[in-house]
Amino acid sequence: MEVAWNGPKVAPYEANAERARPIPIVYQTTSPKKKAPPAESEAHAPHAADHPHDTPAKTAHDSPAAPAVPAAAPDPHAVPAADPHAAPATAAAHDPHAAVDGLSPADSLAKLKTGNDRFVAGKPEHPDQSVARRSEVAKGQHPYAIILSCSDSRVPPELVFDAGLGDLFVVRVAGNTADESAIGSIEYAVEHLGATLIVVLGHERCGAVKAAVDSADATAPAPGHLPAVLEPIAPAVKQVKNFPGDTVDFAVRANVANTVEQLKTSDPVLSERLKSGKLQIVGGRYDLETGAVELK
Ligand SMILES: [Zn+2]
């Protein structure tokens, strides 16, 4: 499966590039790298041929403020499939707290894509769901990927990626943002369970993102604890609010990009793992109709 990130729907960052108006990153940052916008403009470059009408405008109006290496560019620290540091998967089978390295980031990403292909095709294999697998992982877990996804009932990661017991370490919160406990949970899976890939998974028509869009101009705060869900999404809403078109979908994509960048610059655990090439962090958007996850 190869689903272009900038599919039929106009991606917000491409639109931004055409306006030569850099998007300020307004989420919390302690690193200068953070000022890089969630610029999909560069990431879209390989697909420019699919959108020839985009190319002239983008080239002509690319802002000099745009970073040479956008946040969503392929991770230069990603290691090849043959990870010399990879340890046998059984290294910590009997010690869930032992640090191990599992699949390489590239292999983990390929495994997710293959699983999603099966799901999209309606031919899931439901791997790793046997009684034997249950017994195996009872002794220790080595998930090959961490998924930070929305809580939406239509986007369960194990189904979407056709995975099973012990395969995915999943953190879910409405709007797929990362607070301290979410980052701490992810760090645990990276450091102690050997996961080498993090996917921030947003989705089409996200209710949390729509609520954040709707609340942007509200005069009263959202009731109860909802502000805790909506406030982390607010920067993405601000980034895309003037784009013509589907504001919610633009915000979904911007919110994923923001969270990816937040994790990439999270010191010290995640940022150092990235630098060492033992970790890759990517964004994804799930299509409610097709079941396809755009991963980049
Ligand atoms: Zn959602």
**SSE class:** alpha/beta
Quaternary status: single chain
Q: Roughly how many Å is the radius of gyration?
A: 19 Å
Q: H/E element string?
A: HHHHHEHEHEHHHHHEE
Major beta sheet, strand line-up? 2-1-3-4-5
Kindly state the mean pLDDT as a whole number?
Answer: 77
Remind me, CATH topology of the largest domain?
Beta-carbonic Anhydrase, Chain A
Outline = globular
Number of domains: 2
Tell me about the largest β-sheet: 5 strands, mixed
Main CATH class of the largest domain: Alpha Beta
Quickly give the CATH architecture of the largest domain.
3-Layer(aba) Sandwich
Which stretches are low in confidence, meaning pLDDT under 50 for 5 or more residues running? Answer: 1-101
Small ligands present: zinc ion
Helix fraction by DSSP (H/I, runs of at least 4): 25-40%
Q: How many β-strand stretches?
A: 5
Question: In a nutshell, what does this entry contain?
Answer:
With 296 residues, this protein is α/β, with parallel strands linked by helices.
Top keywords for this entry?
296 residues, alpha/beta, Beta-carbonic Anhydrase, Chain A, 2 domains, five-stranded mixed beta sheet, 12 helices, 5 strands, disordered N terminus, binds zinc ion
Describe the protein:
The chain is of the alpha/beta class. The chain has 2 domains: 6-22 and 40-55, no CATH class; 85-295, Carbonic anhydrase (Beta-carbonic Anhydrase, Chain A). It is built from 12 helices and 5 strands. It has a 5-stranded mixed β-sheet. Zinc ion binds next to helix 8.
